[in-house]
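Handout, section B. The chain below has 170 residues.
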Amino acid sequence: MDSLTFNELALIPHLILEGEWSNDPQHARQAILGFLAGLPTNTWWSLSAFVSDIHQAQPDFQRPSGDYDSWFIRYSLSGDYLRGFEHWDQVDGELIRFTFAAHFNWLGIVDLASQNQANPLQLFGFRVGDHPCYRGLHHQAWLMKMIRSMLDQMVACACHVACRAVCVIK
């Protein structure tokens, strides 16, 4: 979580980052982790409501300057540029969802739920568990240090890691 070389925004398959601008993936990760730290454990939450709450309360979590026009991000399926605050959900919201599916679940920070058996990664909800790793959310410095080395190792070996199982709710 403390890695400066691992950039989740650049890994989202349908977003194309163009130009010379840069983001701070470590700051974004820490902000998302901070949002989780205040949640009770072992309670299921709506992922869309969580993303919506961040959009309302702290939309600039990954853009401290509040600049939504200088990042050149293109949506690969349409070729459209996603500039401006009106595209928050397609960029910033998608970063939150991607971070949950690609890292927080795999690292054991959250459990995920889906209502779609055909596409289990179409996420519905999540919960922060009561495992010692989850309780580490309240001790971010320790958790960040542990996860930093894991993310750096993943970057170094360029390995593909399978995600933990996603619970499908029927």
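Note. The beta strands are 15-18, 45-46, 72-75, 110-114, 123-128, 167-168. Compare this with the example in section A.
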